[in-house]
Write a structure and sequence with these properties.
Two copies of one chain form a homodimer.
Chain A lengths: L5 H8 L3 H9 L7 E2 L5 E2 L2 H15 L4 H12 L5 H34 L10 H7 L9
Chain A binds a DNA duplex through helix 2.
Chain lengths: 139, 139
DNA sequence: GCTTGACCTTCCCATGATGGGAACCCCACA
DNA sequence: TGTGGGGTTCCCATCATGGGAAGGTCAAGC
């Protein structure tokens, strides 16, 4: 069981040292053992958890979800139903955000297409911002 | 020229009073005239600008973009090319963010489909978080 | 005139996730 | 023994927004 410093833990887990300390401060991970010099050192399990968190973050999970996923991950007796529920809830949230962004970009794209983009001041984009025009999906 | 208080300005513009003060503090809008009681009062032009900002925010523009758009909007001699450039840059940013979210939700959706979601502990979702699996687009 | 309630003011704090940097301590190596 | 590269804590910044406290002000009803 090799013990590593925070910078080494950061390198192997892909989580910055800054974030590792932060995760500890909000109780997402347990406080690791300290040396006599008060340096943190991390064991295999801790490194594993950090990598887990890293991948969950890459999938856009927030800390509350990650907290629950970590709990389920540690529990060998867990039911996969809970994991699936968290994942599907998150999928719905991601899809909603993506749809909102897409709607914005579509609206703006259509406006930009109708904008000459030359020396003339006329511009449907500014006109749309100017007047309380119809909702976005009307374009 | 009717002058209104901040709460009335909030109601007609759709921007909260809190945000109106904030926009003023960061110099996004000019400081309005004050009454003897130091109450802010807003004229037609100010209300118009607030509504403009509101709609720009609805399209996802950040404050720096809005600052520039407001400048172009006030300038009757502006060229539409600058407006279009800002808009298209923003469209690209929105599309990129939307694509990132969609990629996450796709990955997670596929994993969830392969998860029984019953009493059994086996779960591809946790397995994916557990091991440094292939990148998301491999699913 | 006085109370009451609704409004205004400024100031501080919080979010979520992350980075930057200061000030200070510690260790290994030449 | 100096130097460089760790480690530690603490504060501040982001982006846009909301909550709330403490205190001043106004208008309406009695």
């Amino acid at each position: 069981m090799s013990l590593v410093t925070i910078t080494q833990a950061a390198q192997v887990s892909g989580v910055s040292a800054k974030m590792i300390r932060y995760y500890e401060s909000i109780g997402l991970i347990a406080a690791p053992a300290r040396g006599e010099n008060r340096y943190r050192h991390y064991d295999e399990t801790a490194l594993h958890e950090l990598a887990f968190i890293r991948r969950a973050r890459d999938l856009g999970f927030g800390f509350e979800d990650i907290r629950q996923l970590l709990g389920l991950w540690r529990d060998r007796q867990r039911s996969s139903a809970e994991v699936k529920a968290i994942a599907l809830r998150h999928v719905a949230a991601l899809e909603q955000k993506a749809a909102a962004l897409t709607a914005m970009s579509q609206t703006l794209k259509h406006l930009a297409e109708r904008c000459h983009g030359d020396e003339r001041p006329d511009c449907p984009i500014l006109e749309a911002l100017d007047q309380p025009g119809p909702p976005a999906h009307a374009w």
